[in-house]
Amino acid sequence: MKVVERIKEPIYEEMELFEKKFSKSMSSHISLLNRITHFIVNRKGKQMRPMFVFLVAKMMGNGKLNERSFRGAAVIELIHTATLVHDDVVDDSNERRGFFSINALWKNKIAVLVGDYLLSKGLLLSIENEDFDLLKIISIAVREMSQGELLQIEKARNLDITEDIYYDIIRQKTATLLAACCAMGAKSVFASKEEVEKMYSFGELLGMAFQIKDDLLDYSTNLKTGKPQFQDLKEGKITYPFFYAYKNANNKQKEILINSLGNKKVQTLKILELIEKLNGIKKTEELAKQFYKK
Questions:
Q1: Do 151 and 106 share a structural domain?
Q2: Which region holds residue 236: left if phi is over 0, alpha if psi is between -120 and 50, else beta?
């Protein structure tokens, strides 16, 4: 059994029910919009975020979920999907999870409007049910994610980055959303403030480990991961293997690394050899293990 399927076992029935509720939450009277949202639902990923909402809610709620838990998971997934649709437009990406992206099939204008629609559906789902405490959690996460992306763009332009800045970027970009999922699960079943904060911290550390592992996958030759090799490098994103190698490189090596960042025609094997030589891969593996232990 795959790892994700094993993790889903305690909430299998809840996830089945969630899929029906989530599909319904996207419905519209506009046929074009329904075609696009149907396309999104049929090409769902692992659904990790609602999975963490349900696992935490079931754990903190004595094995029981309520409608708030389902709404919280739906809000997270709606807003997360909206950010992915917008990301594909920003990155000019034609693929998402091995399928054509929304912007590739329906062009940028429609993709941006669909992202806006999903965002508004998520907000309204919370407001109409007066789940203002849940809405606050996801709103903070979206703010952090946006700031993290902008911080990464700002620092990548001049390679003006330190280890602390790298942590800030991945905490905001990735970890805050998983932290929000775990906090949302606890909050949905009316856990105490202390318990919600503990689950938020757990989710944040999980997200840090997840992003560092994802950084590592950019330089992996394992085709089973589903992530195109060197995608982050070609898009000009500073990952930890790159950052560590650059920090320890001499001037000639730094020039090679700088010229590879954001270069679609980069000699990838040459860069991989250099990053391995400068211990970028080894140090990233060690860092991921540190966050996993925490």
A1: yes
A2: left
pLDDT digits (tens, 9 = 90+) for 236-290: 788 899 989 998 899 999 888 888 877 777 777 888 889 999 999 999 999 999 9
Regarding whether 164 and 95 lie in a shared domain, the answer is: yes
Number of helical H runs and strand E runs in the chain? 15, 2
pTM: predicted TM-score of the whole model, two decimal places: 0.85
Phi, psi dihedral angles at 259 (to 5 degrees)? -70, -20
- Asked if the structure places residue 209 within a domain, the reply is no
Give the SS3 label for residue 274. Answer: helix
Yes or no: say if 284 and 292 are a contact pair by the CB < 8 Å rule: no
Give the DSSP letter string of 35-91. HHHHHHHHT----HHHHHHHHHHHHHTTT---HHHHHHHHHHHHHHHHHHHHHHHHT
- Residues 73, 180: one domain? yes
Find the CATH number of the domain harbouring 114.
1.10.600.10
Range of the domain at 231: 218-294
